[in-house]
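Record type: monomer structure entry
Structure origin: computed from sequence
Chain ID: A
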Amino acid sequence: MSARTWTLLALAALAPTGTDAVAQARAYAFVDVTVIPMDRERVIEHQTVIVRDGRIVQVGPADRMAVPQGATSIDGRGRFLMPGLAEMHAHVPTDMDYAEEVLFLYMAHGVTTIRGMLGHPSHLTLRRQVNAGEKLGPRFWTSGPSVNGNSVPTAEAAERTAREQKAAGYDFIKIHPGLSRPAFDALAATADAVGIRFAGHVPADVGLRRALDAHYSSIDHLDGYMDLLVADGAATSGGGWFGANYAPIVDDTKVVGLARATKIAGVWNVPTQTLMDSYASDETPTAMAARPELRYMPPATRNQWHNWKERSAAQAPPADARRRFIEIRRRLIKALHDEGAGLLLGSDAPQVFNVPGVSVHQELVAMVAAGLTPYQALVTGTRNIALFFGVQDRAGTVEQGRWADLILLDANPLADIRNTSRLAGVMVRGHWLPRGEIDQRLATLAAKYVDGGGR
């Protein structure tokens, strides 16, 4: 069964066939549930949450609220309802069948919003279809095609690209390495003039100081930070993987000041710490490739990731330097949070050993390992996302009038962040995907790729 067939079946199951069916398809009641509203750190027990036409229309005590006639009742006893999560460094394939598989994987693991970080013209159509409800998928923001030293070699090309991507309707510009300083300066000036933001990597010729001054909308991977954390006067000979080679010569006293400068600049960060954890891990490529969630990925992808780990392990610094690299990044994440610089949840998926949806939960664990509380980590994937996109009046919390992008959990994530993986169901734009249906589709996808079969 293809991903497109899954989507059509899901929509068909929700399609109205009459007046009562319209109410049943579009109205739901989470009954006697514990709400984690995410407006502040708290839980509200014994609530009923009514959803209609993709919006939360009522939240109140379960003993005072009746389930509306025709609405589907969802048992919330012993369960926890909170906003859906976001993947702010997502990759969406250009093959539409495969793209729909990836979108399903996000939803199946509670991701109800994605920001595509390597755009393509086909994604403009897919974004319209998804955001209009013609296809079932997470809310979708997308960059334009990559801006890098090859695609944009001159200042004139940078100015033209910024105008073209704005006119095409992309949400922002994605920057990759290799962009020259003159090209970047032209891109930033033109983007500001036409009203489109830019995000992503920090090219070496640009550097973090200029990136902050230019007010990136987000810096991804904490790119460029290690370069500025190197101790004054230390000899450098190439930073390697996101500055990992610099780890032994970092001056820890610079961390807080750099975090404070980020806050002053108003620049958000998407750490993608799980990607760095995979790089620094002592696990063998074979052990990593045997992780259970990789059964949802095509065999060619699994092989690529295995080979990447082999190559990176051969080129990586010694184990103590890799551990130091992770320690510094964790300190930086905690300092960014403590100084009030915005953090956004993103893992870079599908990317090496990061399976769409699954890796968001791993990223939450990484945020807690960096020193954030479970609540603070959850803010990066819920309320902060709404604030970043300017939709805080519509998203990010569980309250009346907000979009019905929700996850129902079997255990409290404020007690243990790993409980975000204990999904009883997911609601995307008011469409309910119960655990049983999710498991059935996951099993079908895994069977497609078993023993090297499928794509």
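Annotation 1: The first strand starts at residue 27 and ends at 35.
Annotation 2: The radius of gyration is 22 Å.
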